Amino acid sequence: MSAAASATRVELRHGARRVLLAPEVGGAIAAFDETRDGRSIDWLRPATPAALAARDPLGMASFPLLPYCNRIRDARFMFEGAIIDLSGDGNAFPHALHGNAWRLPWRVEEVSASRARLHLLHEPSREAAHHWPFAYEATQDIALDAHTLTVTMSARNLSDRPMPFGMGHHPYYPRTRNTRVHARVDAMWHCSPDLLPTHAGPHPCVDAMASREGLSADAFDLDNNFAGWSHTATIAWPDERRAITLHADSPFDHMVVYAPASHPDLLCVEPVSNVADWVNLNVDRALKGGAVLKAGESVIATFAWTTRIE
């Protein structure tokens, strides 16, 4: 069944589980929850009515990152002998951040009771306010079942020239004093004061995430990329006897953890395809991620959240 392109909310259901989509807010997931014994359980931090009314992607439960993830230093980089300048794209941050897909409305292409497809078409001539000098299209196929919320992202370079590219998703999880993060990574990317990566190396949080107890969300002030991610991470609330596990396919070969000390209510564990500022980092591609899509080339990848209540 086709959905109207003007639809502002899409609700998916499977039994007691619900996903609310806000296509007009950067193709975002606004909520993922379920009802148990008369109470609502939030698996992702839900968008507030105010955030929905303001169409604020940063207030959503999760939003897509396209055509790059994280920051690009000074909103510029060199590509194929030319400077790509993103300083006029309307981004309010000092460095270009997260691409432009999260700040553009997506169109609902298909929807059923527990599935939806969202589509975005970016043409530079039409989207000067969200400048990216390459045409591309992207889709999100979102499916809900009894245990898992699955998101399959795809993108295609519509330009007549190669395009640098990265993608990911930016989920926020409920953060409490007892929230724990479990993951196996090889190293953490250390950052400059303005949160641009400098080098990958050891950090106590790497061992903490791999431990039986996991990493307390309050243990460190984190806004960092991680290298050598095993493609699985679990966010647990042991006092609530529940957990959600993120599984991601390649090219989501990198992970970001955002657990700022200044905002003790925020926690993000993100599947991404590239380290921040990868287009300016002079390191091996395998370490920094990212890709170059040829004219007409496509990429597709899936990640999923599986929930558990004991």
What does this structure look like?
This protein is mainly β. It has a single domain, classed as Distorted Sandwich (Beta-galactosidase, Chain A, domain 5), CATH 2.70.98. Helices cover 5% and strands 45% of the residues. It contains 3 helices and 26 strands. The chain has helices at 49-54, 204-210, 285-288; strands spanning 10-14, 17-22, 28-36, 39-42, 62-65, 71-72, 76-79, 82-85, 96-97, 107-111, 115-122, 136-144, 148-157, 163-165, 168-171, 180-183, 187-191, 197-201, 215-216, 222-227, 232-237, 242-248, 254-259, 268-272, 291-293, 298-309. The strands form 7 sheets. Strands 10-11-12-13-26-22-21-16-19 form a 9-stranded antiparallel β-sheet. A 5-stranded antiparallel β-sheet has the order 18-17-20-23-24, with no helix packed on it. Strands 1-2-3-4 form a 4-stranded antiparallel β-sheet, with no helix packed on it. Strand 1 (10-14) and strand 2 form a beta hairpin. The longest helix has 7 residues, at 204-210. Mean pLDDT is 94; it is low at 1-7. One of its GO terms (molecular function) is carbohydrate binding. This is Aldose 1-epimerase. One of its GO terms (biological process) is carbohydrate metabolic process. It holds the Pfam family Aldose_epim. InterPro entries: Aldose_1/G6P_1-epimerase, Gal_mutarotase_sf_dom, GH-type_carb-bd.
